[in-house]
Amino acid sequence: MDNINIEAGERSPKITCDWEKGTMEVVGESYPENVTEFYGPVLSAMENHLNSNKNKKFLCAFELLYFNSSSAKVLMRIFDMFEEFATSNGHSISVIWRVDEEDDNMRELGEEFAEDIENIKFEIVNK
Amino acid sequence: MDAKTLFNMHKLMLGNEVIMTYSGYMSQALLTSIASVLKQQIEQDHLPKKVMRNIFSVFVEQYENVVRYSDDQIEDEGKDDVRYGIMAISKKNESYILNCGNVIKSTKRVKLLRERLNSLKNMSEDDLKAYYKQKLRADTEEGSKGAGVGLIEIARKSSEFDFDFIDLNDGTSFFLLRSILK
User: Which of A11, A34, A67, A70 is the best residue to mutate to test the B interface, defined by the most B CB atoms within 10 Å of its own CB?
Assistant: First the structure.
Protein backbone atom coordinates (compact mmCIF):
# COMPACT_ATOMS: atom_id res chain seq x y z
CA MET A 1 0.00 0.00 0.00
CA ASP A 2 1.28 3.47 -0.88
CA ASN A 3 2.42 5.76 1.88
CA ILE A 4 0.51 8.99 2.43
CA ASN A 5 2.10 12.41 2.20
CA ILE A 6 -0.39 15.26 2.33
CA GLU A 7 1.07 18.74 2.57
CA ALA A 8 -0.50 21.18 5.03
CA GLY A 9 -3.10 23.52 3.57
CA GLU A 10 -4.43 26.78 4.99
CA ARG A 11 -7.11 24.85 6.85
CA SER A 12 -5.85 21.30 6.80
CA PRO A 13 -2.97 19.52 8.53
CA LYS A 14 0.08 17.81 7.10
CA ILE A 15 -0.49 14.06 7.18
CA THR A 16 2.29 11.52 6.80
CA CYS A 17 1.75 7.76 6.94
CA ASP A 18 4.58 5.29 6.67
CA TRP A 19 2.95 1.88 6.64
CA GLU A 20 6.18 -0.10 6.71
CA LYS A 21 7.30 1.69 9.86
CA GLY A 22 3.74 1.61 11.16
CA THR A 23 3.51 5.33 11.84
CA MET A 24 1.13 8.18 11.15
CA GLU A 25 1.61 11.87 11.92
CA VAL A 26 -0.93 14.70 11.77
CA VAL A 27 0.46 18.22 12.17
CA GLY A 28 -1.15 21.64 11.92
CA GLU A 29 -4.63 23.15 11.92
CA SER A 30 -7.72 21.17 11.03
CA TYR A 31 -10.92 22.74 9.76
CA PRO A 32 -10.97 21.49 6.17
CA GLU A 33 -13.68 22.71 3.76
CA ASN A 34 -14.95 19.16 3.45
CA VAL A 35 -13.96 16.91 6.33
CA THR A 36 -15.20 13.69 4.73
CA GLU A 37 -13.36 14.38 1.49
CA PHE A 38 -10.16 15.23 3.34
CA TYR A 39 -10.03 12.49 5.98
CA GLY A 40 -12.04 9.75 4.23
CA PRO A 41 -9.18 8.28 2.14
CA VAL A 42 -6.73 8.52 5.08
CA LEU A 43 -9.11 6.68 7.40
CA SER A 44 -9.77 3.89 4.87
CA ALA A 45 -6.04 3.44 4.22
CA MET A 46 -5.38 3.34 7.96
CA GLU A 47 -8.08 0.75 8.52
CA ASN A 48 -6.71 -1.38 5.66
CA HIS A 49 -3.25 -1.15 7.15
CA LEU A 50 -4.44 -2.17 10.62
CA ASN A 51 -6.38 -5.09 9.15
CA SER A 52 -3.30 -6.45 7.41
CA ASN A 53 -0.67 -5.37 9.93
CA LYS A 54 1.14 -8.58 11.00
CA ASN A 55 3.26 -7.15 13.81
CA LYS A 56 0.21 -5.36 15.21
CA LYS A 57 2.17 -2.27 16.23
CA PHE A 58 1.16 1.26 15.29
CA LEU A 59 2.26 4.70 16.41
CA CYS A 60 0.20 7.79 15.71
CA ALA A 61 1.31 11.31 16.58
CA PHE A 62 -0.86 14.43 16.62
CA GLU A 63 0.50 17.94 16.80
CA LEU A 64 -2.58 20.09 16.36
CA LEU A 65 -2.87 23.83 16.86
CA TYR A 66 -6.62 24.03 16.30
CA PHE A 67 -9.39 21.71 15.17
CA ASN A 68 -13.08 22.37 14.60
CA SER A 69 -15.97 20.24 15.78
CA SER A 70 -16.21 18.27 12.50
CA SER A 71 -12.54 17.35 12.85
CA ALA A 72 -13.13 16.38 16.49
CA LYS A 73 -15.62 13.85 15.21
CA VAL A 74 -12.93 12.36 12.95
CA LEU A 75 -10.44 12.23 15.84
CA MET A 76 -12.99 10.39 17.97
CA ARG A 77 -13.50 7.90 15.14
CA ILE A 78 -9.75 7.33 14.88
CA PHE A 79 -9.36 6.71 18.62
CA ASP A 80 -12.39 4.43 18.73
CA MET A 81 -10.95 2.48 15.79
CA PHE A 82 -7.60 2.12 17.61
CA GLU A 83 -9.38 1.02 20.75
CA GLU A 84 -11.30 -1.60 18.79
CA PHE A 85 -8.14 -3.03 17.15
CA ALA A 86 -6.37 -3.08 20.52
CA THR A 87 -9.26 -4.69 22.39
CA SER A 88 -10.47 -7.24 19.85
CA ASN A 89 -7.32 -8.01 17.88
CA GLY A 90 -4.57 -7.47 20.42
CA HIS A 91 -2.89 -4.62 18.58
CA SER A 92 -0.37 -2.49 20.44
CA ILE A 93 -1.21 1.08 19.51
CA SER A 94 0.34 4.27 20.86
CA VAL A 95 -0.93 7.79 20.46
CA ILE A 96 1.33 10.75 21.11
CA TRP A 97 -0.51 14.06 21.58
CA ARG A 98 2.13 16.77 21.20
CA VAL A 99 1.35 20.23 22.59
CA ASP A 100 3.10 23.52 23.08
CA GLU A 101 4.15 23.81 26.70
CA GLU A 102 1.91 26.86 27.22
CA ASP A 103 -1.01 25.51 25.26
CA ASP A 104 -3.26 24.40 28.14
CA ASN A 105 -6.23 24.38 25.83
CA MET A 106 -4.83 21.73 23.49
CA ARG A 107 -3.55 19.75 26.48
CA GLU A 108 -7.08 19.68 27.94
CA LEU A 109 -8.54 18.58 24.62
CA GLY A 110 -6.03 15.71 24.54
CA GLU A 111 -6.94 14.79 28.12
CA GLU A 112 -10.61 14.65 27.17
CA PHE A 113 -9.90 12.09 24.45
CA ALA A 114 -7.55 10.17 26.76
CA GLU A 115 -10.28 9.79 29.42
CA ASP A 116 -12.20 7.29 27.29
CA ILE A 117 -9.21 5.20 26.30
CA GLU A 118 -8.51 1.87 27.96
CA ASN A 119 -6.43 -0.38 25.78
CA ILE A 120 -4.18 1.95 23.85
CA LYS A 121 -1.34 4.05 25.13
CA PHE A 122 -2.17 7.76 25.03
CA GLU A 123 0.65 10.09 25.96
CA ILE A 124 0.50 13.86 26.15
CA VAL A 125 3.95 15.37 25.66
CA ASN A 126 5.40 18.84 25.33
CA LYS A 127 6.86 19.75 21.95
CA MET B 1 -29.04 52.65 -0.86
CA ASP B 2 -27.09 55.87 -1.20
CA ALA B 3 -23.49 56.44 -0.16
CA LYS B 4 -24.56 58.46 2.90
CA THR B 5 -26.55 55.50 4.23
CA LEU B 6 -23.52 53.30 3.82
CA PHE B 7 -21.44 55.85 5.73
CA ASN B 8 -24.05 55.90 8.50
CA MET B 9 -23.87 52.13 8.70
CA HIS B 10 -20.12 52.41 9.00
CA LYS B 11 -20.47 54.99 11.82
CA LEU B 12 -23.02 52.83 13.59
CA MET B 13 -20.64 49.91 13.48
CA LEU B 14 -17.70 51.95 14.69
CA GLY B 15 -19.85 53.20 17.57
CA ASN B 16 -20.59 49.62 18.52
CA GLU B 17 -16.92 48.69 18.23
CA VAL B 18 -17.63 46.23 15.46
CA ILE B 19 -14.31 44.85 14.32
CA MET B 20 -15.66 42.60 11.58
CA THR B 21 -18.98 42.24 9.85
CA TYR B 22 -20.24 40.34 6.87
CA SER B 23 -23.67 40.21 5.32
CA GLY B 24 -24.37 38.22 2.21
CA TYR B 25 -23.87 34.82 0.69
CA MET B 26 -21.29 32.70 2.42
CA SER B 27 -19.32 29.64 1.33
CA GLN B 28 -16.60 27.41 2.74
CA ALA B 29 -14.10 28.97 0.32
CA LEU B 30 -14.87 32.44 1.71
CA LEU B 31 -14.27 31.21 5.25
CA THR B 32 -10.63 30.51 4.38
CA SER B 33 -10.03 34.21 3.66
CA ILE B 34 -12.17 35.70 6.42
CA ALA B 35 -10.67 33.36 9.03
CA SER B 36 -7.14 34.33 8.06
CA VAL B 37 -7.93 38.06 8.38
CA LEU B 38 -9.72 37.56 11.70
CA LYS B 39 -6.77 35.60 13.03
CA GLN B 40 -4.40 38.46 12.21
CA GLN B 41 -6.80 40.92 13.79
CA ILE B 42 -7.24 39.14 17.12
CA GLU B 43 -3.52 38.45 17.37
CA GLN B 44 -3.04 42.24 17.52
CA ASP B 45 -4.95 42.32 20.80
CA HIS B 46 -2.39 40.19 22.65
CA LEU B 47 -5.08 38.20 24.43
CA PRO B 48 -4.33 35.07 26.41
CA LYS B 49 -3.89 32.18 23.98
CA LYS B 50 -6.95 30.38 25.29
CA VAL B 51 -9.26 33.38 24.75
CA MET B 52 -7.85 33.91 21.28
CA ARG B 53 -8.44 30.27 20.40
CA ASN B 54 -11.96 30.34 21.83
CA ILE B 55 -12.88 33.42 19.78
CA PHE B 56 -11.56 31.77 16.63
CA SER B 57 -13.29 28.52 17.45
CA VAL B 58 -16.73 30.09 18.09
CA PHE B 59 -16.34 32.14 14.92
CA VAL B 60 -15.65 29.04 12.78
CA GLU B 61 -18.57 27.09 14.31
CA GLN B 62 -20.97 30.05 13.87
CA TYR B 63 -19.86 30.54 10.27
CA GLU B 64 -20.17 26.85 9.44
CA ASN B 65 -23.60 26.77 11.06
CA VAL B 66 -24.81 29.45 8.63
CA VAL B 67 -23.16 27.77 5.61
CA ARG B 68 -24.78 24.46 6.47
CA TYR B 69 -28.19 25.44 7.75
CA SER B 70 -29.36 28.82 6.43
CA ASP B 71 -32.48 28.32 4.33
CA ASP B 72 -31.63 31.16 1.96
CA GLN B 73 -29.50 29.29 -0.50
CA ILE B 74 -28.20 29.59 -4.05
CA GLU B 75 -29.16 26.27 -5.61
CA ASP B 76 -26.42 25.02 -7.87
CA GLU B 77 -26.24 21.28 -8.21
CA GLY B 78 -22.86 19.72 -7.65
CA LYS B 79 -21.44 22.94 -6.26
CA ASP B 80 -20.58 23.57 -2.62
CA ASP B 81 -23.13 25.22 -0.36
CA VAL B 82 -23.61 28.98 -0.76
CA ARG B 83 -26.02 30.35 1.82
CA TYR B 84 -27.06 33.77 3.08
CA GLY B 85 -26.25 34.97 6.55
CA ILE B 86 -24.83 37.75 8.66
CA MET B 87 -21.90 37.77 11.05
CA ALA B 88 -20.62 40.53 13.30
CA ILE B 89 -17.85 40.59 15.84
CA SER B 90 -17.60 43.46 18.29
CA LYS B 91 -15.65 44.36 21.37
CA LYS B 92 -17.01 45.74 24.59
CA ASN B 93 -14.63 46.48 27.42
CA GLU B 94 -12.65 43.26 27.69
CA SER B 95 -15.25 41.06 26.02
CA TYR B 96 -15.69 39.91 22.47
CA ILE B 97 -19.22 39.50 21.18
CA LEU B 98 -19.81 37.21 18.23
CA ASN B 99 -23.18 37.34 16.47
CA CYS B 100 -24.50 35.33 13.58
CA GLY B 101 -27.89 35.17 11.91
CA ASN B 102 -29.75 33.36 9.15
CA VAL B 103 -33.21 32.57 7.87
CA ILE B 104 -34.95 29.34 8.87
CA LYS B 105 -38.00 28.44 6.81
CA SER B 106 -39.44 25.54 8.74
CA THR B 107 -41.35 26.18 11.98
CA LYS B 108 -40.56 22.61 12.98
CA ARG B 109 -36.83 23.32 12.75
CA VAL B 110 -37.25 26.53 14.72
CA LYS B 111 -38.98 24.56 17.46
CA LEU B 112 -36.26 21.88 17.51
CA LEU B 113 -33.44 24.41 17.51
CA ARG B 114 -35.07 26.42 20.31
CA GLU B 115 -35.41 23.27 22.42
CA ARG B 116 -31.85 22.23 21.72
CA LEU B 117 -30.37 25.63 22.56
CA ASN B 118 -32.47 25.93 25.72
CA SER B 119 -31.23 22.57 26.90
CA LEU B 120 -27.60 23.53 26.15
CA LYS B 121 -28.07 26.75 28.14
CA ASN B 122 -29.17 24.74 31.17
CA MET B 123 -26.28 22.29 31.11
CA SER B 124 -23.33 22.45 33.47
CA GLU B 125 -19.79 22.30 32.07
CA ASP B 126 -19.60 18.59 32.89
CA ASP B 127 -22.96 17.90 31.25
CA LEU B 128 -21.82 19.75 28.14
CA LYS B 129 -18.63 17.73 28.01
CA ALA B 130 -20.48 14.42 28.32
CA TYR B 131 -23.04 15.48 25.72
CA TYR B 132 -20.24 16.66 23.39
CA LYS B 133 -18.54 13.28 23.55
CA GLN B 134 -21.81 11.46 23.05
CA LYS B 135 -22.48 13.56 19.95
CA LEU B 136 -18.95 13.07 18.60
CA ARG B 137 -19.68 9.33 18.57
CA ALA B 138 -23.25 9.54 17.29
CA ASP B 139 -24.00 9.01 13.64
CA THR B 140 -24.76 12.23 11.84
CA GLU B 141 -28.37 13.17 12.41
CA GLU B 142 -30.73 13.07 9.50
CA GLY B 143 -30.83 16.41 7.69
CA SER B 144 -27.65 17.41 9.48
CA LYS B 145 -24.68 17.80 7.18
CA GLY B 146 -22.27 18.74 9.87
CA ALA B 147 -21.04 16.86 12.83
CA GLY B 148 -24.08 18.08 14.81
CA VAL B 149 -21.70 19.16 17.54
CA GLY B 150 -21.07 22.74 16.43
CA LEU B 151 -23.67 24.21 18.78
CA ILE B 152 -22.30 22.26 21.74
CA GLU B 153 -18.83 23.53 20.89
CA ILE B 154 -20.20 27.10 20.84
CA ALA B 155 -21.90 26.54 24.22
CA ARG B 156 -18.67 25.16 25.70
CA LYS B 157 -16.35 27.86 24.39
CA SER B 158 -18.57 30.89 25.11
CA SER B 159 -18.56 32.62 28.48
CA GLU B 160 -22.26 33.27 27.84
CA PHE B 161 -24.54 32.77 24.88
CA ASP B 162 -28.12 33.62 23.98
CA PHE B 163 -30.36 33.35 20.97
CA ASP B 164 -33.53 34.68 19.42
CA PHE B 165 -35.93 33.81 16.64
CA ILE B 166 -37.59 36.77 14.95
CA ASP B 167 -40.85 35.93 13.20
CA LEU B 168 -40.74 37.37 9.69
CA ASN B 169 -44.53 37.01 9.37
CA ASP B 170 -44.31 34.90 6.23
CA GLY B 171 -43.89 31.53 7.90
CA THR B 172 -40.12 31.98 8.16
CA SER B 173 -37.95 33.15 11.04
CA PHE B 174 -34.65 34.91 11.43
CA PHE B 175 -32.39 33.01 13.81
CA LEU B 176 -29.83 34.98 15.84
CA LEU B 177 -27.11 33.53 18.00
CA ARG B 178 -24.86 35.63 20.24
CA SER B 179 -21.77 34.45 22.08
CA ILE B 180 -19.86 36.48 24.61
CA LEU B 181 -16.23 35.62 25.26
CA LYS B 182 -14.21 37.07 28.08
Answer: A70
Name the residue of chain A whose CA is nearest to B49's CA: A103
Give residue-wise pLDDT tens across range B51-90: 899 999 999 999 999 999 999 999 888 788 899 999 999 9
Interface mutation target, options B47, B80, B81, B136, chain A, most CBs of A under 10 Å? B136
Residue pLDDT, tens place only, B25-37: 999 999 999 999 9
Q: How many CA atoms lie within 13 A of B48 on its CB side?
A: 11
Rounded to a whole number of angstroms, the distance from the CA of A33 to the nearest CA of chain B is 6
- A69 and B146 in contact by Cβ < 8 A? yes
By Cβ distance, the residue of A33, A70, A80 closest to B147 is A70
CB contact under 8 A, A112 and B129: yes
Domain that holds residue A22: 4-126
Whole-Å CA distances, B17 to B37, B56, B92: 17, 18, 7
Terminal Cα distance for chain B, rounded: 36
Q: Collapsing DSSP states into helix, strand and coil, what is residue A86?
A: helix
As for the ipTM of the complex, it is 0.92
Residue B156 domain boundaries:
3-181
Domain count, chain B: 1
CA angle B145, B39, B161 (to 5 degrees): 60
**Which tens digits make up the pLDDT trace of B116-168?**
999 999 999 999 999 999 999 987 655 555 546 999 999 999 999 999 999 99
What is the C-alpha to C-alpha distance for residues B180 and B160, in angstroms, rounded to an integer? 5
Tally of domains in chain A = 1
CA distance A13 to chain B (A): 14
**For residue B147, what pLDDT is reported?**
44
Backbone angles phi, psi at B59, to 5 degrees: -60, -50
